[in-house]
Design brief:
heterodimer; A: about 350 residues; alpha/beta; eight-stranded mixed sheet; about 25% strand; B: about 300 residues; mainly alpha; MetI-like fold
Chain lengths: ~350, ~300
């Protein structure tokens, strides 16, 4: 692995509601190598978005980062001052939100909102800011940007707005872009365009990307590494090829099994049984054990995230010495016969 | 948080809450006939009160509102005295005219003051939450525990009765109302993603509050302001009627009601005309305020 731009170690973010602690992110560890794309995959409520917001220290009351470290270019962010964080946000680390419809302020024109970033971080005035804004809009592929800068968000379609969001996020050429489900709200054709755009811009500016998604197709297309999250924990961290060819964690296998495939004949998809446990009835051992087809007694204890021979990490007893059952996890095509 | 916004985005087509142009706004207001009447009445009164203010201070008509004429007291409406005369022979029409700017002025000033204090308190309370919110809102709750007129009475009796003190007293009573409405709107607005987005761009709290939240909660503030002016006028008149507000011989409408109180049976016009004016002004503000609320509400737009 090359040098890491972002190194997250044992990050814990909790929400304190009516005296209860809800561990949304519970000991997350992952790295983002410089210039690469890391995908974070998981079901709703697995803590993907909260991890992303934690990086930018944007967790609101009643949430709080309770432990762990976030190192960005060897700088600790969990203890960084407010003014330093504001300087990092939008300038060195940017974020794209998942809902383009509501991510732009309806009372300002596109140009006014794009100028904001330049004004905050580079102190640019109106004329210079507008010039840059038009350049940015052009870069993200918005036709006739001179006209668009003076329009209000409601005059733009969803795909256009997402492009504007990307333009805003990239305005100051950040080194790290966090994209929180950037394509979830868009239709497939626009989705492909947006992903392509992010990829091209990444090459152009040389930034690293954290792509948060629940769409494995998006992951396959864009990412270099993948962290699979389940219930606030990373259960598998692997490079993209290993993840799709040789998935280790039963949860990853379950996710892949529930996707339709083109290369084999199948009548039915195999879903993962059950649903994500509620935060207050979280199993004490392996979080996935109640839904895991391989679970045995040992799974009542929590396995560690352990590095395998090929350098990838997995959090499962199956890959440890203590496991006494059958080694390996059944992959989809071995299972289907029909 | 995204789930909620997704639904609303689907239901209502994307609308710009800022009224795009005065023309567009006027078009929507025009559909509501009673609001339009209210608007014109207010516009008329506004100019009349400006004329009254100039006349009272520089004497265009040459008639003083305090000029007594005991030979012509308690006269009914006539060609010479349009609204009749009071127990001191003062021309009630002139007094109503000259008092108009005081009544309207107190209403506007009290509302403006209340907004000036209440809006920032509400935004800060809603935006920062936590103990700041608790402290501010509990103080507001204490103020709200008193009936408005009682609170104003208490404040006026401490400060002493004068036009300015009445204004302050009414404003203090209205602060919690503004703070609450603004806090509620702030709470919904700050959860929207563009606030997150601008924070993720590195904006400071002050910038987020005043440039990104405030413009988006303007419509409830405007509506509340309009509706509250009516209440403020009523409270001011009420205090003056009780002799605690604007002091005689200033021709404040509430004070004029009090003047005429003893002559209700013989000369009801002394109370009738100022009373009617209060009713018309308050009604106009309420009609206009209601219309404004509908016109500014994007959900009502069809």
């Amino acid at each position: 692995m090359s040098e890491n731009i972002l190194d997250i170690n044992d990050l814990r973010t909790s929400f304190f509601v009516e005296g209860n602690e809800i561990k949304a992110v519970d000991g997350v560890t992952f790295q983002v190598p410089k210039g690469k794309t890391l995908g974070i995959v998981g079901e709703s409520g697995s803590g993907k978005s909260i991890s992303a917001l934690s990086i930018l220290q944007l967790i609101d009351d009643p949430g709080k980062i309770v432990g762990g470290s976030i190192r960005f270019k060897d700088e600790e962010l969990t203890t960084a001052k407010g003014s330093r964080m504001r300087n990092i946000r939008g300038n060195e680390i940017s974020m794209i939100f998942q809902e383009p419809m509501t991510s732009l302020n309806p009372v300002y024109t596109i140009g006014q909102q794009l100028r904001e970033a330049y004004k905050i971080h580079q102190g640019l005035g109106k004329r210079e800011g507008t010039k840059r804004a038009i350049e940015m809009l052009e870069l993200v592929g918005i036709p006739s940007p001179e006209k668009r800068v003076d329009q209000y968000p409601y005059e733009l379609s969803g795909g256009m707005r997402q492009r504007v969001m990307i333009a805003m996020a990239l305005a100051c050429k950040p080194e790290l872009l966090i994209a929180d489900e950037p394509t979830t709200a868009l239709d497939v054709t626009i989705q492909a365009q947006i992903l392509e755009l992010i990829k091209n811009l990444q090459e152009e500016i040389g930034m690293s990307v954290v792509m948060i998604t629940h769409d494995l197709g998006v992951v396959a297309e864009t990412c270099d590494y993948v962290a699979v999250m389940y219930c606030g924990k990373v259960v598998e961290f692997a490079d993209i090829e290993t993840l799709f060819e040789n998935p280790r964690h039963p949860y990853t296998v379950g996710l892949l099994n529930s996707l339709p495939r083109h290369d084999i004949d199948q009548d039915e998809l195999v879903p993962i049984k059950g649903s994500v446990p509620a935060p207050d009835e979280m199993p004490s051992g392996c979080r996935f054990a109640p839904r895991c087809p391989h679970a045995s007694d040992i799974c009542r204890e929590l396995p560690e995230l352990e590095t395998q021979e090929d350098g990838n990490d997995v959090r499962c007893w199956i890959y440890t010495e203590q496991w006494d059952g059958e080694k390996g996890v059944k992959v989809y095509d071995n299972e289907t016969t029909s | 948080m995204a789930v909620v916004s997704k639904e609303t985005a689907l239901e209502t087509k994307p609308v710009n809450p800022r009224v795009k142009s005065m023309k567009d706004f006027y078009k929507r207001l025009k559909k509501n006939k009673s609001a339009l009447v209210g608007f014109y009445v207010l516009l008329f009164f506004f100019f009349v009160s400006i004329f009254g203010a100039i006349d009272a201070n520089y004497g265009i008509t040459g008639v003083s509102s305090n000029a007594t004429n005991l030979t012509a007291k308690l006269q009914g409406p006539s060609a010479e005295y349009w609204f009749g005369t009071d127990h001191l022979g003062r021309d009630i029409f002139i007094r109503v005219l000259h008092g108009m700017y005081i009544t309207l002025g107190v209403g506007f000033a009290a509302t403006f003051l209340a907004g000036l204090v209440g809006v920032p308190l509400g935004i800060i309370s809603g935006y920062f939450g936590g103990w700041v919110d608790t402290v501010i809102m509990r103080i507001m709750d204490i103020l709200l525990a008193f009936p408005g007129i009682l609170l104003a009475l208490a404040i006026v009796s401490v400060l002493g009765g004068s036009t300015i003190n009445v204004t302050i007293a009414i404003a203090i009573g209205a602060v919690p109302q503004f703070a609450r409405i603004v806090r509620g709107s702030t709470l919904t607005t700050k959860k929207l993603e563009y606030v997150d987005a601008i924070r993720a761009l590195g904006a400071k709290n002050g910038k987020i509050i005043f440039q990104h939240i405030l413009p988006n909660i303007m419509s409830p503030i405007i509506v509340n302001t309009t509706l509250f002016i009516a209440t403020a006028i009523l409270s001011a008149a009420g205090l003056s009627f009780l002799g605690l507000g604007v002091q005689p011989p200033t021709p404040e409408w509430g004070a004029m009601l009090n003047d005429g109180r003893n002559y209700m049976y013989q000369a009801s016009h002394i109370t009738f005309f100022p009373g009617m004016m209060i009713v018309i002004v308050v009604l106009a503000f309420n009609l206009f305020g209601d219309g404004l609320r509908d016109a500014l509400d994007p959900k009502m737009k069809k």
